[in-house]
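Form 12-C: Joint structure prediction
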Amino acid sequence: MEIFFQNIFNALQWGSFYALIALGYTLVYGVLLLINFAHGDIFMVGAYIAFFVATFLLGSYGVIDPGTFTGPVIVALAIPATMILTSLVGVALERIAYRPLREKGAHRLYVVITALMCGLLLENGNLALLGASRKRFPDLLEKTVFSLGGISVTNLKILVIAAAIGVFLLLHFIVTRTKIGMAMRAISYDKFAIPLMGIPINNVIVFTFILGSGFAGLAGFLFVMSYPVLDPYMGAIIGWKAFIAAVVGGIGDIRGAFLGGFLLAFVEIGVVAVFPSTLRDLLAFSVLLLILWWKPTGMFGMPQTTKI
Amino acid sequence: MLLEISGLTKKFGGLQALSDFNVRLEEGSATALIGPNGSGKTTAFNLASGFYKPTSGTIRFGGQDIRALKPHEITALGMARTFQNIRLWQDMTVLDNIRISQHHRLGYSIWDCFLWTRRFRRQEREIDRYAYEMLECMGLMDYAHEYPRNLPYGLQRRVEIARAMSVRPRLLLLDEPAAGLNSADVGDLIQLIRWLRTEFKDLTIWMIEHQMRVVMSLCSSIKVIDFGRTIAEGPPEAIQSDPNVIKAYLGDENI
Amino acid sequence: MQKYSFKALLLAITVGFVLAVHFQLVDQYVTTVAMLMGINIILSTSLNVVNGYMGEFSCGHAGFMCVGAYVSSVLSVLLFTKDRVFGPALLPEEFAVIGVPVVILIGGVAAALAGLIVAVPSFKTRGDYLAIITIAANYIIISCLENMDVIGGPRGFQGMKRVVGAMEDVWDIPWMPVLVLVGTILSVWAIRRFVSSTYGKGISAICQDEVAAEIMSVNTNKMKLVAFMLSSGLAGVAGGLFAHVYGYVNPQSFNILKSTECLVMVYLGGMGSLSGSVLSAIVFTLLIEALRFAIPALNSLAHQLHMVPASYEIGQVWKWVVLPLILILTMQFRPEGFMGKKELSDFFPFLKKFYQRLED
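Section 2 - Result
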């Protein structure tokens, strides 16, 4: 029984990671109809940024005296800093790689290839610059275990799950209640009419990338706090999983990204509980394949129609 | 009866695009289907050519039930069509456009293709000869090696009709063949279709067309639909003075 | 007489190359690079069938290569040599001479069947979603093999060198260069004939307007099946050759990076240009080899000039920075590739005659 609840919390934690990353895919797809294949690697960059920000605040680079800040203060300072810096990376990607193509009116395929290649570039660029040795994220928060009727949960897990729920509520508010959120939804319906309505399309797109990459940065920070080892390829497999989650939920739909993320996590944890853990990735990809065979646009996605 | 459609209904979700649609096309006849925008004309064509599957109703072509067939199988039975917005393969020469439409008659497999068997070479020669013949008789010989995108709109229409004719259809569906053409081109188009009807004796034509000039000079019978329902049917003169038709196009007088 | 002269010329070049390798006039390294070039040519031309001519975006080509490599390796080790796991050879070792080409072809057939994973969903979906399916297929294939401990799992599989050795015992000619050469010529030949026939042009029709293709008598589902299976089958042949050249395969050598190499070759050469694919495969192979030497040279130069910190080494991983960058820049500045849709014969008309002679 205890193991069962333990697994439930593990699944919720992993689901939160998947959901936070899946959001970035879904937001960009919702607005640009572009699968931003580099997003998993933005998560990885976010994790590295988190590492550098945290060690900077701990005083490793000599600017700040070691011991100036305590752990919780560092977390409180580093999370926004990481989110801002990661969103800068996302926006830079958009400005340098995607926007010129969009303005040239290039075929969507070319943008997708560019995205895929940008992902590889980030991964291997990181590997080339920082070397293959893995970095270890410092312990910032003291581990506290809350136990409730035999079920024990760490404070970190609660933080992760709370962050995911908070982000969901915030995003839901932004998309449904604010002007820029409405503009985001409008762009996905008609890219050509939006500028005519006086909405600065590029600002909306940049805002979308800020949101998506910012949350990827948050996910990166929380991830390395939970699993404190960094390596350049960490974004690839988690990014793909998150992407599967987004597709399962119906890419372009925020609720879908969340549900898909949690669903995938529960399925994976369930599989690992029964089968050897090497089958986990195989299963995740098989789920993706089956869903795309059966319902190509996911749980919340609209069916595509051809008009002649 | 070449084409017999009865009780044909098509729903998209809650929207009834076409309801209880009936039509009977006699061999060698020319019939027009008209109606205001969004009245379900193209839906009827899409159902007939197999691109949509009907919600209910029957479609018989040459006595055979074709509801379960794929579009390319229906084409092979002898039904060809053109599209409202020209859909040629723009990056292939006019000649290749005709050639590829011979897919249903290819008598060779991929292995013949790799091994260059005698059968393959004979078939390819035959297709080449036929394609040139088709272009010759449609007056497109000069453009055989041009890309359609480089041709004026009127010529593209002609190429599209030539492509449809090259599958040797018994029934030719023309979806707004005069759309976007100028007055001189429309004249040429009427000439062309008249010539097709004399040249290919049994050819049946079913067209969607708004320009009364085209309809009047080519079709012996007209069917008018609005909101998926048939509102009038008969020879052109009767249709022109039918109060229901006038209402559908111009609105009620008594508002 | 003249009708055959070009074929004779081709044959002479082939024989000349084989003799040169046999008598060790060219060294081992050059031979290996030449074989790699041939394998890359098969990969890029076969991927071009789907990504160029049919206009889909398949990015799991290495997965099919993997199937071909493993199936042919396991079969040839099982049949023609004594192995720790599989026991004694099932057939006399001398049969390897005929057996290995057959086994490589069987690998191709297996890869073509694996291509069904991608081909069947392509009936309903296209574009981005199909791209995802191809990537998922690549991961699934690799993951399956990593979970098969009988054939080595993640440690890889070997023993093909012994089979090739057995072939050389029977008849002492450089078998692998010959097989790669023959495989390359036949593959390019088959693809060229396919895409220039009325039958094969059906896939270009699907690329340009699928609806029109279906309604104008092209059986689109069948054509997609044919194109995907041809493409993945040839990738499987390339994989089989690759496995027998190196004598060792490992699931991770067919991961998404290998697929990316294939993509770079296709888009660099130009979608829908066969000679573009061949040329870019040659240039690409040379570029990779050049990087192998250029990176250490650059490293020592940078250290001499004190441009980088002494603790930092410019390593081979920079190759994987350069390659994506090349493709990104291609997409920005010349997205249609170097050749576009054109063939070499469009630039050099005399080649047209040459091709015609070749085909008579």
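Section 3 - Comments
Residues 53 and 90 of chain B are 28 Å apart (CA to CA). Chain B is about 40% helix and 25% strand.
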